Amino acid sequence: MSTESAQFHRDADRLTHDLRHRAWIQKALGGYYVKRDEQKAKYTDWQQARAAAAAAKYEAVNHLDKYLVELTDKLAARGTKVFWAADGAEAAEYIASVARDAGVKRIIKSKTMTGEEIHLPQALEKAGLEVVESDLGEFIVQLRGEPPYHIVFPSMHLTRGEIDGTFQKKLGSAHADTPEELTMIARGVMRQKYCEADMGISGANFAVAETGHISITENEGNARLSTSLPKVLVSIVGIEKVVPKLDDLAVLLPMLATAGAAQNMTCYNTLLGGPRQPGETDGPREFHVVLLDNRRTALLADAEQRDALHCIRCGACLNVCPIFKNIGGHSYGTTYQGPIGSVITPHLRGLQSWKHLSFSSSLCGACAETCPVKIDLHHHLLQNRRNAIEQKPVWWEKPIFAGFAWFMRRPRLYRFAAPLLRLTAPVLHAIRGKDIDPLSMWTRTRDLPAPPSQSFKEYWRDRNAKR
Amino acid sequence: MKITLFIPCFIDQYYPGAGIGMVRILEKLGHSVDYPESQTCCGQPAFNSGYWDEARSVAETMLDAFRDAEAVVGGSGSCGAMLKVFYPELFHGRPREAEAKALAAKTHEFSSFLVNVLGVGDLGASFPAKATFHDGCHGLRELGIKREPRELLKHVRGLELVEMKEAETCCGFGGTFSVKFPEISTAMGEVKCASILETGAELVISNDSSCLMQIQGLFDRQGQKIKSMHLAEVLAHF
Amino acid sequence: MPNDSREKILRSIREALSVKAPARHLAGTGAAASGHKPQDWLPPVPSSPAELIALFEKNSLDLKTEVRHCADAAAAASELAALARENNWKSVGSHHFALGTETVSALGLPVVFTDQPYETADLERCDGGISGCDCLVAQTGGILVTSASAGGRVLSVLPPHHVVIASAGQLVGDLADAFAVLRKTYGSPPAFVSFITGPSRTGDIERILVLGAHGPKKLTVLLVQS
């Protein structure tokens, strides 16, 4: 078992017993389901919309080289500097050098999971720069020294009381009772930061090849401010974010809003294609777009799972996943949580160390059913499992499954399973849940059914004997 | 029509009533029912655990057992999905792929077979009780079964069917998942059980006995009186 | 950029794409999809101007965007003056645009003009920001702005109350229509384009909706008929 896997088991164990957390998350997501269904019902045809959205991403991902080059050319034509980074270290180094060259001291950042993925804030802080998270949820978890809990709702696990405590401790603010008051405290702090920052960092939800824009979706307006006020702007964009045409956003933006947050449309959807142009009176003087690979090309090469790169990071799969709801976002121990995280993390960070994420699923398929771009999520979990075992079978499992196969190929031997179960049942019942019980993984928390007086095979044989 | 029964291993071992119910119903409808005794297990435990070679080797006995069948009718959504959806995947690019596809095409889940192939609704059953229905995930999402069990249950005299709040939420069984990640499995099961209890039902029905093993296992441990039955057992009350 | 990994990444991509990926998303959609544009599947958009306005108003109500109808420019001016009084504005930010220039100066308040060099600190102190727009979108209740149509990149997001003065003729159906307006007006879309759909909001604390997270807490559309 890898250290990551051991940590996962520990965290999952703790969180699944935390009934307060369980109730809290259920409540937090309850409203989402109702509103999302209302929103979906307004669509002329939600399933066709999913197919159209999937088609746009399929085209983009399967012609990725062509569209990335087009995107780069169109961005560069407006004076944008485009940097292609093979991995997180290259990206962080480039961004640090941009900051150095521009004499940057203070950075304001809007939400970017890609930035989290490469630990960009930490890398820049190490280089002596101040990095402030402007997204409210990210700001809160940054103050608490915690990673984000959910890719869209980073602080959904916290109560207002906990947030108030954090604000009082870290900001010296007065006690605040309501989400409104707490938000206004953050707003006040952030306003100065926007005006003082010399560099803004953002991510992107999409990158339009046809017109040379990155597209940023948000509700708060912090990305609008972070990308407009500071004199330097760097946007870090996973290479898979590309879409071929501007009109693709006419479908993708509403669907991102509906699936992700049960909204008709998110509050701010902003296209950025260049630094301050001739005729503009504000906006950054320098605009850098960092295109990040960081093993996305490895996932691209897995043709069976390539559609995992369609992901628009809406978070819908997290919202419907019963695993996520019971173990919470932090248990995943990595940037991308929930079903999409369980699918891509083994690709991005190593199959053998992270395969446990693909195994810790009941394969219910709620994720694939909800995904607005029709990623075959639950089947990819099965494929990751197969790949992991093919690469390295688990030493004690291999003989068990070999034995299972040996036994199940022999119907005449299989006949003895029923009487054996009946024979051992009383003993197993007596030791149920105890450490010596071989079935304790089940019986610690659940009873087993008593074996019937006759198996189906025995019934059938009797029936035929009577006829 | 000659109907060939596919009785998954845990129905055979733990819930034969579901299989017996299927036999009684199909015979009442005037069909002859066959059961190839050489069938054992669909291979899903190995498949889900990533041991596809071993799963394939077990699956081959099923290809053999059902070779001559016209219509294979199974009493489980998850095992039905294994044959219908995953066998073609398992045998893709390998010997016997054509047989796997053929078996997939002729396999049906029980409620789907009754409603969509035989076109029946009312089986003349009666079962006075307040009940709720749990949709097994594989049946629901791999096989698209949602309407069919309810279509059949609405004709059962005396049965009051109430929908639970989280009918489509996974019970947490997930095969080997239930013993590999027992804490998560149990938590999911507890959420499902709470949702069932909220309906005030005295009976929970499902088209997947593996789900019922999880749900009843938790209810029994909690000391709850509520009972569980496979759809076929309820419908066979005539 | 000479020192980056562009060629290396492109090589990896081309190698990866030498194997075709299954087009699973096409399953189950079939003939019904052909002959339709993707946006046909979104919530339907009516065609008559009256219905479009009604849809825009309904969405605005849900978003808490305030819509005030003005028969003409003079009415817009008096609505703007009313807003200034109701909200106790001391100074505003704005730019020079057809529907706004006279109306804003009639307020008699200090104005920070953002379509000429300005100090961020001055704009930050403004109580309101008054701008034009490229179009209004009925399907979403949204407002399309660019630097040219809305006085730069900051005016429509920094002051706590954003007021848009638009004409009813600027109302279009959906996002695709808005993109068409963009192309028609600018040829190729400019470097800054934004859809504004309601006042700024967050649900980050206990999933409870709070307005005015960082952007404007209030958004008002003065919709001028003629």
Full CATH superfamily name of chain C: NagB/RpiA/CoA transferase-like
- CATH superfamily descriptor of the largest domain in chain A: NagB/RpiA/CoA transferase-like
Taking all Cα atoms into account, the compactness measure Rg of chain A is: 26 Å
Instruction: Please report the distance between the alpha carbons of the first and last residues of chain A.
Output: 55 Å
Total DSSP helices of chain A? 24
Could you estimate the helical fraction of the residues of chain C in percent? 25-40%
The CATH topology of the largest domain in chain A is what? Rossmann fold
Identify the overall geometry of chain A: elongated
- Structural class by sheet pairing and helices of chain C: alpha/beta
The residue-averaged pLDDT of chain C reads: 94
CATH fold-level topology of chain C = Rossmann fold
Task: Compute the CA-based radius of gyration of chain C.
Answer: 21 Å
CATH architecture of chain C: 3-Layer(aba) Sandwich
What number of structural domains do the residues of chain A give?
Answer: 3
CATH class of the largest domain in chain A: Alpha Beta
Lay out the secondary structure:
The complex is a heterotrimer of chains A (467), B (238) and C (226).
Chain A: H1 3-16, H2 19-42, H3 46-62, H4 64-77, E1 81-85, H5 88-101, E2 106-109, H6 113-117, H7 120-126, E3 130-133, H8 136-144, H9 160-171, H10 179-196, E4 199-202, E5 206-208, E6 213-218, H11 222-228, E7 232-238, E8 242-243, H12 249-261, E9 268-272, E10 286-292, H13 296-301, H14 316-320, H15 322-327, H16 338-349, H17 351-359, H18 366-370, H19 377-391, H20 397-408, H21 411-414, H22 417-430, H23 440-443, H24 456-466
Chain B: E1 2-6, H1 9-13, H2 16-28, E2 32-34, H3 44-48, H4 52-65, E3 71-74, H5 77-90, H6 97-106, E4 107-109, H7 110-117, E5 126-134, H8 137-142, H9 147-153, E6 157-161, H10 177-180, H11 182-198, E7 203-206, H12 209-222, E8 227-230, H13 231-235
Parallel strand pairs in B: 1-2, 1-3, 3-4, 5-6, 5-7, 7-8
Helix pairs in contact in B: 5-6, 7-9, 11-12
Chain C: H1 6-16, H2 49-63, E1 66-70, H3 73-86, E2 92-94, H4 101-105, E3 111-113, H5 120-125, E4 128-131, E5 135-137, E6 142-146, H6 147-150, E7 161-167, E8 171-172, H7 175-186, E9 192-196, E10 201-202, E11 210-211, E12 218-224
Parallel strand pairs in C: 1-12, 2-3, 2-4, 4-7, 5-8, 7-12
Antiparallel strand pairs in C: 5-6, 6-9, 10-11
